[in-house]
From TrEMBL:
Domain of life: Bacteria
One Pfam entry name: PPK2
Protein's GO biological process: polyphosphate metabolic process
Organism: Pedobacter suwonensis
Annotated protein name in UniProt: Polyphosphate:nucleotide phosphotransferase, PPK2 family
UniProtKB keywords: Kinase, Transferase
Family of this protein: Belongs to the polyphosphate kinase 2 (PPK2) family. Class I subfamily.
Polyphosphate kinase-2-related domain: residues covered: 30-267
InterPro entries linked to this entry: P-loop_NTPase (IPR027417), Polyphosphate_phosphotransfera (IPR016898), PPK2-rel_1 (IPR022300), PPK2-related (IPR022488)
Length: 292
């Protein structure tokens, strides 16, 4: 990983504070330089994905979390555009359905995990259960958890247990061959305002905006506290959080791409090597084809 991206990782070895991370950091890049670097990174990702798919030993789970208008959708579009769709799957998690509420909060996310050889992208994820639900604890009541019939009964111990469940979930995935990459797109409140206004002024982007976005924006400080706590509670050396400065979309896309690229390279992926018996069959198949 390039040096300018190393400072974006939170591994749980020290307390994380959003105040220490600039949302407009660009690592010395300009827009054109970043675009060129992203092209090269995407080419590398394509080759690495082919090896990942062929070897079928690892799965990769990429998690995107952010405030509205931080650029999750466009990051997925631009960074993943060079990948083979056959080896990639994207899930965008919305409000849980009634059926999903009938299970524990991790159930629907476990069902959406990528199998070995594939890359799974979760646009929002199991972290919504300690983010939006932390800001709106009344949503927890929809889970019909025994003993939680009132918001006042949702204690600090409840949230600690939920963080613990998430860490155990990710530890289990990591121990069984799934690489977990977690990205928080850190956008500023001013930049969000600018992007909201663009969505309102541009008729082709009106569909991206809803009145609920303004209601959630009013809870900005509460969300920042929830993100900071979640990141501190769930960052580990095996599954660290990557804090991506998101005011400049072109830099965010490059940072995300190169972090994924670096992680895939660290897996030392190789194409499968055939045994002697299979190699002999290839020789025979070639002989038959040439004799036709």
């Amino acid at each position: 990983m390039k040096n300018e991206f190393k400072g974006l990782i939170v591994q749980g070895d020290k307390k994380f504070s959003l105040k220490n991370h600039k949302t407009d950091f660009t690592g010395g890049y300009n827009k054109e330089k970043a675009k060129d670097a992203l092209v090269n990174s995407k080419i590398s990702l394509s080759h690495l994905q082919e090896k990942l798919y062929a070897s079928a030993k690892h799965a990769v789970l990429i998690i995107f979390q952010a405030m509205d208008a931080a650029g999750k959708d466009s990051a997925i579009e631009h960074v993943m555009s060079g990948l083979n769709p056959q080896g990639c799957q994207v899930y965008s998690f919305k409000t849980p359905t009634q059926k999903e509420y009938e299970h524990d909060f991790l159930w629907r996310h476990y069902k959406a995990l990528p199998e070995r050889g594939r890359i799974g992208i979760h646009n929002r994820s199991h972290y919504e259960n300690v983010l939006v639900c932390k800001v709106h604890p009344e949503y927890i009541l929809n889970e019909n958890i025994p003993g939680l019939s009132d918001v006042k009964k949702i204690s600090k111990n409840f949230w600690q247990q939920r963080y613990k469940s998430i860490k155990n979930f990710e530890e289990h995935l990591s121990a069984n061959g799934t690489v977990v990459l977690k990205f928080f797109l850190n956008v500023s409140r001013d930049e969000q305002k600018k992007r909201f206004l663009e969505r309102i002024d541009d008729p082709t982007k009106n569909w991206k905006f809803s009145s609920g976005d303004i209601e959630e924006r009013a809870l900005w400080d509460q969300y920042m506290n929830a993100y900071e706590r979640a990141i501190n509670e769930t960052s580990t050396p095996e599954s660290p959080w990557h804090i991506i400065p998101a005011d400049k979309k072109w830099f965010a896309r490059l940072a995300i791409s190169e972090i994924i690229e670096d992680k895939l390279k660290s897996l030392d992926l190789k194409f499968p090597v055939l045994g002697e018996a299979e190699d002999a069959k290839l020789g025979e198949a070639k002989r038959i084809l040439l004799s036709e």
